[in-house]
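Researcher: Let's continue the batch. This sequence belongs to Vacuolar protein sorting-associated protein 11 homolog (Trinotate prediction), and it's 164 residues. Same format as the previous ones, please.
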Amino acid sequence: RIFVLMSLKLRQFQFYTYHEVLDRSTRSSFSLLKNINISCITAGKEYIIIGDTTGTIYVLNKLLSCFSLRFGAYSLCIVYMYMSAKIPFLFCIGNDIGESRPIVKIFDLKTTNNLGVPFCSTHFKLFSSDENAIVSAVAIFDNLAHVAVGFSSGTIILLKRDII
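Model: Same format as before. Here are the structure tokens for Vacuolar protein sorting-associated protein 11 homolog (Trinotate prediction):
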């Protein structure tokens, strides 16, 4: 009898390719985001927008060479952001010092004050039945007419109005 031993070998599949982004001017590693503790990110209308754990929003230009805008939106962490593909409004959910509930803020990125900070067209608190519940899911129509916010407690809030 001849026994054939088959080697069991796991096949590796490469799902993603890794390509390091280099700084265009220095041709070295891209370090613009190095000291930012990113909590959320979104993109739309020629922007890449980054929110961090200190409540700051960074708007990256399309060449990834510098921040075209940087401003403090919250005094604590930004939880969620959404940039509409149709209108230049940035939808944010975050936390402020002294507030136990998450706060929604909507910024008009085309309108800024004399310091370059975008105009906050709307802000309001989100109330859940459980005060300790955190935002766990968000779904938004592109025109911001319908917004659904899910909490870790299972509560869902549906906003159906013109929130801009």
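Researcher: Any comment?
Model: The chain is about 0% helix and 45% strand.
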